[in-house]
Amino acid sequence: MTTNAPALELRRVNKWFGAVHANRDISLSVGRGTIHGIIGENGAGKSTLMSIVYGFYEADEGEIYVNGALCDIDNPQASIEAGIGMVHQHFMLVDTFTVLENIILGVEGGNRLAGGIEKARIELERLEREYTLEVDVDALVGDLPVGLRQRVEILKALYRGAEILILDEPTGVLTPQEADHLFRILNTLREQGKTVILITHKLREIMAITDHVSVMRRGEMVAHVATKDTDREKLAELMVGRSVLLRVEKEKATPGADLMTIEGLNYIDEDGVARLKNIGLTLRAGEILGIAGVSGNGQSELLEVLGGIISPTSGSIRYKGEELVKNPKFNARDLRKIGLGHVPEDRHKAGLVLSFSANENTALGYHDLPMFNKGATLDRTKMVSACETYIEKFDVRPPDATLKASGFSGGNQQKLVLAREMEQDPDVLLVGQPTRGVDIGAIEFIHKQLIHMRDQGKAILVVSVEIDEVMSLADRIAVMFDGAIVGELDASEATEQRLGLMMAGISDQELHVSDPEGEAVS
Amino acid sequence: MFKQLKLTAIAAAVVAVTGIAKADDFKPAIIFDMGGKFDKSFNEAGYNGAEAFKKKTGIEYMEFEVTQVSQREQATKRMARKGADIVVAMGFAQAAAVEKAAKANPDTKFTIIDMVVDLPNVQSVVFKEHEGSFLVGMAAAMASKTGKVGFVGGMDIPLIRKFALGYKEGAKFANPNAEVFENMTGTTPAAWNDPTKGGELAKSQFDRGADVVYAAAGGTGMGVYQAAKDSGKLAIGVDSNQNHLQPGTMLTSMLKRVDVAVEDAFTSAKNGTWKPGIKVLGLKEGGVGYAVDEHNKGLLTAEMIEKLEAAKADIISGKIKVTEYK
Amino acid sequence: MSETKSKFGAPSKVPAWVSLGLIPLINLVAAFLISGVVILIVGDDPIKALEVLVYGAFGYPEAVGYTLYYTTNFIFTGLAVAIAFHCGLFNIGAEGQAFIGGLGVGIAALYFDFLPFWAVIPLAIMLGAVFGAGWAYVPAYLQAKRGSHIVITTIMFNFIAFSVMTYLLVEVMINPSAGGSPETREFSDHTWLARAPEFTGMADSPLNFSFILALLLSGVFYYFVWHTRWGYEIRVVGQNESAARYAGISPSKNIILAMIISGGLAGFVAVNELLGVHHRVLMDFTGGYGFVGIAVALMGRNHPIGIFMAALLFGAIYQGGTELSFEMSNINKEMVIVIQGLIILFSGALENMFRPKIEGFFKKRQSLSTAEV
C-alpha cells in the first residue's frame, strides 16, 4: 500500500445485463479524504457501477483497487472487509429493531448478544461524537424520521470500519434542511480523513459539497473534472450529452383543435406525497407535446392519471369538451373506447404480459372489443390475424404471432405495444419513453410512426427522459420538475442547455435573477 | 412383471377360495378406524383384544387401518372377499360400510363395536359408557377435597357427551354440591390427539379449583394425565386401564372392555358360539367398570370402593337410573 | 433485471415436453427411489411393493374404479387450485370449501328430495358449487379489498369450515336413529348419482357419474381460461398486475371471480363423495383432497391435461397405497403416508430442485443451436 495511492480506483470496468451494456469501460480514481461526486441521468449506470464496487454485482471485466491494492470484490462482505461502506437509496434497516440492534446486525461478535451490545454502545458513542451524528441508539428505527434513518445507515457503515463511504442518491428522500445536515456530516467525515463518494443527479449537491466530479452518460464515463473548474451549465451539458441528434424528418406542425385540456391537476399518493402539482397542459390535434424531465419528477404519475389508471386528487381533464375527472368513464378501459391510446413507460411492467403470446398481448386492454370476440368467447383466430397485420405493418421480428412476448427483443416488444395502441386509431395517444432500450433502427421507425400519426391530425403526448428525443419529436416542449411544469416552450426555441437547466428546476426567469433557494448557478 | 402379477393374483384368489372351503382354517379380521390402532384408546383396545386372541390361539388375524372415508366400505368388503370368517369393525363411523358389506356377503360374520347395525349376520356391541362414567364420577367427587371435578372430552360428538353426562350424574350422586367443569378439546378429529391442548384444559380446570379430572379424549388424555401429575392433582383414565401411565396420580380408569368384546367376537366365531344381534355391555355384563390395581391402591380407599360397589349393585338392579345421552 | 421474476404458475421458457413430461417424471422417480430406501429400511422388498402398488391401482377392474374415483376428487381440487394460481393466488382452502360444499349438497338432497331426480340432482350439484364458492368468497373479498393474505385467510377458513360442519352434524343435521354418529340420514336413493355400469366390472367401486363431470369441467376449464375474456382477464391479473391495471382490468374483481370459481370447483368434491358414494353428509369426507389438489395443480402445471395426469397419479397412489396396506404387513398406513408425502414433496415443494438444472441444460442447448443458425 502506498500512501498517496487513490482510495479507490477502477480500471476498465464492464458490466452487461443480457444485451444491455450497463457499464462500458469505466475508469475512475477517487482521492483519499475527498468527496467525489458521480453524476448522470437515471439509467446512466451510476447505481450499477457502485453496486459493483459494493459487491452486489460482479463486474464482467475490469479491476478494482482499494488503496492501491487489487481487490477481488465479489460479495458485499469482501467489500466491507476492504473498508467500503454503502448507504443505499432504499435503507436496509429492520424497522422493529433499535438503532443499536440494527447496527450490530451481522457483526454481533459471538452468539451471545449482551457482551457485543455493550462494546458496540461504547464504540457508537465515540463515532457519534466524532462525526456529529446525533442519533439515540436505543430508539426504534421505525420511529425515526427519514433523515435520522440515513444517519443510522452511515453509522452502520462506519461501525463496520468503512474508510470509503458510498452514498446513493442520499438526498432523494430528504427535506432541504435534512440535506444540509447531511452535508455537514459529510464535511466532518472528510475532515477526519474518510473518503466519500456521492451518487446523484442533482447539480446543486455536486456544486455544494464535492471536490471532484465524474459524469456518466449511457453507461460510459464522459468526464472527470474538479468541481471548482466547472459550473452547473457545463455539468448539465455533459450529463445530457451531445451525442448525434437523431433528427426526424418532419413538416412543421399544423395544430388544430384542443383535444385535451388539463388544468390544475394534482395528485397526492398513498403516502401523502404530492406527485403532481397544479399541472396545466393542452393537447392539440396534429401536434406532438413533449414532456422533458429527469425521471421521477412526476412524469410517470402524469401518464397514469391521463391513462385512467390512477385518479387525480383534484383538477380537471377535458377531453373533446367532456370533463373526465369524476366521470364514470374515467378508467383505463373506457378511455380506450373513447379514443385514448396509451403506450406505457415500462413495457415489461405494464405494456405487455411477457408470458403471453404476441397475439394475446395484441388484445391487452382491448380484449372485450368485438374485433377480438365471437359471442361470449375470445376469438383466437381474430387475435392472431390482427397480430399478424400489426407485425407486418410495424415490421416486428420474428414475424410470429404465437411467440411469447418475452421472446422478442426490446425494440420489437415496443413495436408490438405501439402497434396495439396506434392501430386502434385513437385521437389522443399518450406515449411514455417511446424508445427506451430500443435499438437505433427501431427508434427511427417508431419516431416516423409517431410523426405520421401527428400528420393525420392526432394529438400526441410524448414523455421521455431522452432530451434529444423530446427535441426531435415534439412541436412543443414542457419540462417537469418535482411534480410541476417548470415551463413550456416551442420546440424551435429549445436548446439543450435551456432544457437541461429547466430539468434541474431552474426556470428561464430564474436563470437571470438570483435564486432565493440557492438553486441558481453560484 | 404384469404376467407375474396376474399369476400371483390368481394364486391369491385360489388361496382365498380354498380358505373358505376348509372349516378349521379360521380367519378373523379387524378394521381400525381413523386414528389408527395405536391411538392409546379405543382402537388400541381393539388391537389389544385381537392380540390377546392371537396369543391364546396362535391364529393370525388380518387388519386394516382406515385413512380415507371411502376405505371403510372398501376394507370391509375386501376382508369378506379375502375369506375372513369374522370381520370386526371398530367404531360407529363404520356402520354404513358394515351394512353394505354385510348385505353383499351374507355368509360372513360382522361385529361392529359402538354402533348398531340390524342385519342377520351382524353382531352389534354397544357399551353403557354412562354407567361406568357414573361410577368414576362418584369416585372423583369422593376423592375431591374442593368439591370441584373436571371433565375433558375429545371431539364434541354425542358419544363423548354420553361419557360426560354419566360422569356428572355420578359426581352429583356422591356429592350433591359437587361442581363439574366440562371442556371439549375441539370440533375436528384432531381433538383426539392433542395432548398439549388436553393439558392446557386440565390446568385451567385445576386453576378453577378442580382437583380430579376425567379425560375421555383418546390420545389427548395423555396431556391431561401429565398435567394432573405436574400439578399434584388426580386424573381418571378411560377405555383401557390407564392407571399405570402416571402411577400415584391416577385415581382410577373407566374401563370400557372393547378388548374383551373383540376377543370374544373372535373366540365365539371360532367356537361357533357367535350370535348376531345387539350385545349391550353395561356394569351387569362386566363390559364397563372402574379399575383397581397396585397403581391406585392408596387413592381409592376401602370406604370409597364400598360405596362404589353399592352404587354398582343399585345400577344393575335398576335402583339407580343413569341417564343415557341421546 | 427483475421483471422476469416468476409468479405462481408462470410458464417457463423450455420446450413443453421438458416442462410437462420430463421434469415431473424425474421428480416422481426421485420420490420412488427414496420411498424404496424407506421400504428397504423397514425390511420389505421395494420392487415387490412397487408391483403391489401398480397392481393395486390398475390390476383389476374394481381397483381401476377406485383409482378413478380418487382421480375424480383430485381433478376437482386440482382445477380449483389451478384457477386460483392463474390469478396469482394460492388457495389453501379447497378442503374447507369442499366441506361446506357438502352442506349445499346435503341441503338439496335432504330437504328437497320431494323433487324428481332430474331436478334434485342438478340442484344438489349447483348448491354444492354455490356453497363452496360462497366459502371462498370471503377470503377473496378480504384479499381483494383489504389486502389480507389469501393463504392465511383460506387456512383459517378451513378451521372454521370444520367447526361449522361439526356443529351442524352434531347438533342440527344429525340422524337421531344413527346412535349418535355425527352424520345425516341417508339420502333418498333417487338423489344418488349413477355408479359405473356393471359391464365395466367397476360397479362395486365408488366410481360414479362425477367422473364424467370432472372430465366435462376440465374441458370447460380449458375453454374458460384460454378462450374467454374472463379467463383472459384472470390470467393477466395473475401474470402481471400492473399490466392489468394499465389495461383497465380490475385486479380485485378478478381475484374474487377466480376464487369463487375455485371454491365452486372444490365444492364438486362433495358431489362425488356425498351424492356419488356415501349418500349422506358425514365427517371427514374431504379426506385431505383439497390439500393434495395443490400438489396436483403444481404438477399439472395448471393445465387440465396435466391436472388429469397428476390426478390419475395421485389416485393410483391412493388406491395402490390401500392395496399395499392390505397386502404387505410391514407397510402400514403411516408408511403409505410417507410415500404419498414424498411424492408431494418432490413434485410440489421440491419442484424447483431439479428444474433450474434441467432448464439450464435445455436453454444452453437452445442458445447453442440458435447461435449455430
What does this structure look like?
By secondary structure, chain A is of the alpha/beta class. Chain A folds into 2 domains: 8-240, P-loop containing nucleotide triphosphate hydrolases (Rossmann fold), CATH 3.40.50; 258-512, P-loop containing nucleotide triphosphate hydrolases (Rossmann fold). Chain A has helices at 46-54, 76-81, 99-104, 113-131, 146-159, 176-191, 203-209, 232-240, 299-306, 332-337, 347-351, 358-362, 380-393, 410-422, 440-455, 467-473, 496-503, 508-512, and strands at 8-17, 20-30, 35-40, 61-66, 69-71, 84-87, 164-168, 195-200, 212-217, 220-226, 258-268, 274-284, 287-292, 314-319, 322-323, 340-343, 373-374, 377-378, 428-432, 459-463, 476-481, 484-490. In chain A, strand 14 (314-319) and strand 15 form a beta hairpin. In chain A, helix 13 (380-393) packs across helix 14. Chain B contains 10 helices and 12 strands. Chain B is globular. Chain B starts with a helix and ends in a 9-residue tail after the last helix. Helix content of chain C is 73%, strand content 0%. Chain C has helices spanning 16-41, 46-58, 61-86, 94-111, 117-146, 150-172, 210-227, 229-239, 241-246, 251-278, 289-299, 304-327, 333-349, 351-372. Chain C is globular and about 65 Å long. Residues 1-12 of chain C have low confidence and may be disordered. The chains are: A alpha/beta (522), B alpha/beta (326), C mainly alpha (373). Chains in contact: A-C, B-C. At the A-C interface, helix 10, helix 11 and strand 18 of A face helix 8 and helix 9 of C.
